[in-house]
Amino acid sequence: MKLMEYQGKELFRRVGIPTPRGVHATTVQDAAAFIAQNPGSWVVKSQVMMGGRGKAGGIKFANDVAQGESVARELIGKILKNDQNPAGEQVKSLLVEEKVQIASEAYVSITIDRAAKKPAIIVTSQGGMDVEEVAAHDPSAISTYWVDPAIGFQPFEARRLAFAAKLPAGYHKAFPKIVGGLYTLFMDYGANLVEINPLVLTKTGEVIASDAKVELDDNAIYKHPELGAWRNDGPADEDQAAAVAIGLGMSNYAKLDGDIGVIANGAGLGMGTMDAIRNAGGSAANFLDIGGGAQAELVKKSYALVTSDPKVRAMFINIFGGITRGDQVAQGIVEALQGGDLREVPLVVRLTGTNEKEGREILAAAGMHPVETMDEGARRAVELAKG
Ligand code: GDP
Ligand code: MN
After folding, report:
1. Which DSSP string do the residues of 274-343 spell out, in sequence order?
2. Does the pTM of the predicted model rise above 0.85?
3. Which of 76, 83, 106, 164 gives the lowest tally of CB atoms within 10 Å of its CB?
4. What tens digit of pLDDT does each residue of 149-186 get?
């Protein structure tokens, strides 16, 4: 999942990387109103996934409200194109930011070096241009440091990198903290790429991230579920959007033709559950893979999503507990589904794990239908859906 600049900068701020003051605006009016309230020199930046916006005409400057309004009007709705993106990408929103006085532009990024199987921190003093271009013309200008994941990031390595890449002295003091923040972001958010280009040294001696490029690994979004709603490449359909809205991955929820709602933890168990339902003469209305955790809040949202499908006449929740205690899972399900405005449909629950017997007692006491095996659960669900 690729983030837009304004989203990347939000993450930068969370890890203490300085960014220019500004606002994300989705309309010309919002952009102009912000400039009206904050007189000064502003840069108005198109928010698109593609890089090279500067060259594509997507970055403009404004010194007063009238200019701000005019460039915002020009940019919103515009289709930016360049050699890498001949089809172009339409601008839907803008980042209005304080214009910084640039003394120097550097480049820093972290990616996984697949060959070395380690995060690589890449630095060059030739910021503001494509790092590939720098690599092609002046490879000696690029300095790389491979982080030993067992040791983590060491501030003195950033100091060494700053010297090796011949960053102007003005960068040196701030650089370790910025690279440290970038490394924290890379690890904590499960990123494939974090890049600051340019990392600006201002004429007043500040070091500021003037651009932000962040690509998160789709399999790591669960670490920060709130980021699911940040998706820009857009879920292809409503079902995917619904899964993302409750903090799951795009492919965790699928609608089918039958009348039994299915929640399972793990895609494999989900497939098995649907087979069992078919063998019992029924068919699934949908399937939701609730993932590893299955905390009460997520169970509740998942149940609400699955039962929002009017075709659902019975529910089958199939949880493989493993070392998770069955009584805790059962308690979580009961708490999640008690009261509230959830739609009531007959609910069959099969759970395995330590204390599964105690778990079934808790479920039975709450009026749910606990079962021991998947096949038994499938039969019950098919019966209840007919009933
Ligand atoms: P990109 O082209 O998509 O990578 O967008 P950037 O955010 O990197 O901006 C491109 C270029 O615009 C930068 O390398 C700068 O030269 C220029 N630019 C962007 N923001 C500012 C700013 O606040 N002040 C000045 N002077 N130039 C800026
Ligand atoms: Mn850039």
Report:
1. HHHHHHTT--EEEEEE-TTT--HHHHHHHHHHHHTSTT--EEEEEEE-TTS-HHHHHHHHHHHHSSTTPP
2. no
3. 83
4. 899 999 999 999 999 999 999 999 999 999 999 999 99
